[in-house]
Design a protein that fits this description.
The complex is a heterodimer of chains A (68) and B (140). By secondary structure, chain A is mainly alpha-helical. Chain A has six helices and two strands, in the order βαααααβα. Chain A has helices at 5-11, 16-23, 27-34, 42-52, 56-59, 63-67, and strands at residues 2-3, 60-61. A two-stranded antiparallel ribbon of chain A has the order 1-2. Chain A is globular. The two termini of chain B are 32 Å apart. The model of chain B is unreliable at 1-6 (pLDDT under 50). Chain B is flat and about 50 Å long. With 140 residues, chain B is mainly α. Chain B has helices at residues 4-42, 48-74, 78-107, 117-138. The chains are: A mainly alpha (68), B mainly alpha (140).
Chain lengths: 68, 140
């Protein structure tokens, strides 16, 4: 699953550690999500959407959607 | 509502506290295990009450360690839990497969020595450690 986490974080000039603080997860988890190595749970996805004040589909993109 | 920084501090502090607690229970379990194994020979000259007490103490410490490990796992975030789950799945699989094969080698007298449970514990521990390291690397 693709996501815009890195872009959104850069727009706010946040480090991965800062975003990890906001999400209450480890920096490793933020890094893994950004690189597409780990898909967050629905709970964490909602938390991410709240932090960036965006809808989930504005942050995450199913790779099946982009191929269609 | 606590700030994000306070939340993170809480999570980090919780993980650190849970890790220290787990380490203490693990140390207690190891010490009581040594007491139960070596105590009869070196301390109380095989007196039954001493041996039973040491084994009971070891069981209590062991259950404390199990509870501390569960709390430690619950305190991790979802990726860290996933890494632990995969490592434990691997370690459990290796324990069953290698353990039974090792036992078969002993039963059929293919190996000249006894298949000790301690050998299996070492293999499981090393497999778990390797599983955690591979997981950390995979999601780095």
């Amino acid at each position: 699953m693709k996501n815009r986490l890195k872009v959104l974080r850069a727009e706010r000039d946040w480090t991965q550690a800062r975003l990890a603080e906001e999400l209450d997860v480890s920096r490793q988890t933020v890094n893994a999500i950004e690189k597409g190595k780990f898909d967050p749970s629905l709970t964490l996805a909602f938390k991410i959407s709240r932090v960036f004040a965006l809808r989930i589909e504005e942050i995450f993109e199913d790779e099946g959607d982009s191929a269609a | 509502m606590p700030s994000a920084e306070a939340n993170h501090t809480t999570r980090a502090a919780l993980t650190r506290r849970n890790t220290v607690t787990l380490a203490k229970w693990t140390a207690a379990w190891l010490v009581t295990m040594a007491l139960a194994v070596f105590g009869p020979r070196f301390i109380w000259d095989y007196a039954m009450v001493g041996t039973l007490s040491a084994i009971a103490l070891n069981l209590v410490a062991g259950f404390g360690m199990i509870v501390a490990n569960i709390r430690h796992l619950k305190g991790l975030d979802e990726l860290q839990q996933k890494i632990q789950l995969e490592a434990m799945g691997l370690a459990l699989g290796v324990a069953v497969v290698v353990g039974l094969a090792y036992s078969s080698l002993d039963i059929t007298n293919v190996i000249s020595f006894d298949a000790e449970i301690s050998h299996l514990v070492v293999i499981v521990a090393l497999t778990y450690l390797a599983g955690v390291l591979v997981g950390q690397r995979r999601y780095a």
